[in-house]
From TrEMBL:
Native organism taxonomy: Eukaryota, Metazoa, Chordata, Craniata, Vertebrata
Protein source organism: Chelydra serpentina
Keyword Repeat part of the UniProt annotation: no
Keyword annotations of the record: Disulfide bond, Signal
Protein's name in the database: C-type lectin domain-containing protein
GO biological process: immune response
Amino acid sequence: MKLLVLLALLGTVSAHQLHEGTPEQEVPAEQGEEEPGEPEPPCPTESESFRMTVPGSGGHTYRYVFVNNCQTFWRARKLCARCYRGRLASIHNYSTNQRLRCTARARTNRGQVWIGGVTSRWFWRVSSRWIDHSPWNYSNWARGNPRCFWKTCVALCTASGQWRSVRCRARLPFICEY
Ligand SMILES: *[C@@H]1O[C@H](CO)[C@@H](O)[C@H](O)[C@H]1NC(C)=O
Ligand SMILES: *[C@@H]1O[C@H](CO)[C@@H](O)[C@H](O)[C@H]1NC(C)=O
């Protein structure tokens, strides 16, 4: 009888750990992700940010900042908003992907950078979206991606231009669009 109780408890604990402890699970819902008590990071300095302007169709101009300062995904997003009145970049075609990859490769030093996508799972269904709400109409996943137990964020590999699912708490350089 005691043994059964013990087994039941162990079962509960490991189920609990499985639920709470995996990397993707550390990420709370959407906006959150504040480390309590940690001050807001200062805006990137000029030396760690590189601005690029791309003329688009119909006279529209796209502006990007490549920030070589490693932040978690949600902090990067906040910095894009606070420091550039922008957002993490979304990518809608191959040519933009290439352009951003090349500049990110030259201007950042981690091999991967955050772009503005997140992947989440609802039971067996894994889906990705841009946090700026633009349509998810292009993707360039590396083989075996997206990977997602609960929620992951999208990183662009600066060597291949392919995208990988990364734990949102990882700290990476990032690309803002404004
Ligand atoms: C790719 O996307 C950018 C920005 O969304 C746009 O300005 C450009 O015209 C597109 N290029 C092609 C070849 O569709
Ligand atoms: C994808 O979405 C972007 C952003 O709204 C849009 O500019 C682009 O034309 C779309 N591309 C295709 C192929 O539908």
